[in-house]
Amino acid sequence: MLNAEFFNAEVPPRPMGRYAHIVTLRSTEGYALFQTDGELNRTRIAAGVEDTEPMTRITLFKRKQTTPERLNGRELLRNYGVLSNSEDDKVEESCIYNVKSCKRCPDCISYGFAVGDGGSEKSKVYADTAFALTDYSVTHEVFTLNAPYEDGTMSDKGVVTSRINQQDHVKPGTIFPAVITTRDLTFNLFVYVLNNLLRTTRYGATTTRGGTVRNHVVAIILSDGEIFSNLLLTQSLYDVMRPSGTDPVAIQDAIKASTIVIPALLAQDSVRDQQVLMGADLNAFLNDVRGMSEEQLASVLSEAGEDAKRYFNSYIAKVPKGKK
Q1: What is the SS3 string spanning 195-217?
Q2: Does residue 48 sit within a domain?
Q3: How confident is the model over 138-168, as pLDDT tens digits?
Q4: Model pTM?
Q5: Is residue 4 part of a domain?
Q6: Number of domains, the chain
Q7: Structural contact between residues 298 and 82, judged by C-beta atoms closer than 8 angstroms
Q8: Is-contact 207 16, C-beta < 8 A?
Q9: Per the CB 3.0–4.6 Å rule, which of 77, 187, 214, 289 could disulfide with 4?
Q10: How would you classify the pairing of strands 175-183 and 125-126?
Q11: CA torsion 286→306→64→135, rounded to 10°?
């Protein structure tokens, strides 16, 4: 199981170099929409580390990954009474995403906040742009969309309208390897972040009508520094798998390839690994997290809330005049 003693007993005011990495394969299970300014985000980059042939890949920007996970976590905190449901600006504990930060809940302390002149807290959850494992030509499809009237037709009072549009979607079975890094969190706050990742299933635009994604955690790595990047992981997996043709890569094949790639990449890093959790041990730990009872989940969230409040009281709250 994961070594809980590796994590800080309290969130420290200065970096302590305790990094916990969640290596994930994000696999689309529906037609997803990862776009900015009306079209899919993509970039031209080498296919692999060894195979330097240029390839166009769809990209999944970092905020498109962390925002849905944060919102799922906040929903859970609110449901279990750890996060205030008040929208009154005069209530200090009131916390509204992208509007007002309470500065003391697990979301604010883990993922950070910025309140203009009211202060800011750097995120302790690091994420970077993820790149599709396979080429753009086999990972996207253009759909024609329409907007019918209530009678189900495209005409109104005998006049045919042209409310038709085309949209580029990411195909099902597209894999985005990604590393989510947490720094200097307590064990309860780390489990909170991990649980957000495991629970989140919709990413990108129009999430109520698409964007289903399955997060396959293939490793949890505890170390004294940051490990390999998303791009290096993607390119290394490509070198091992050499996907070709128009068929999507099977997620089980990608998971199997990751057991070869991850140890090799860690051997190239300059950090010291305290624990590498993979295979059966990882699955057992993840099953415990997924299988938490309502009471156990409430306890973890409550303790994560206490860890966040303790940090707020020690390092963020204003010290009363006359006291040090």
Answers
A1: HHHHHCCECCCCCCCCCEEEEEE
A2: yes
A3: 998 876 655 566 656 656 666 666 655 667 7
A4: 0.90
A5: no
A6: 1
A7: no
A8: no
A9: 187
A10: antiparallel
A11: -30
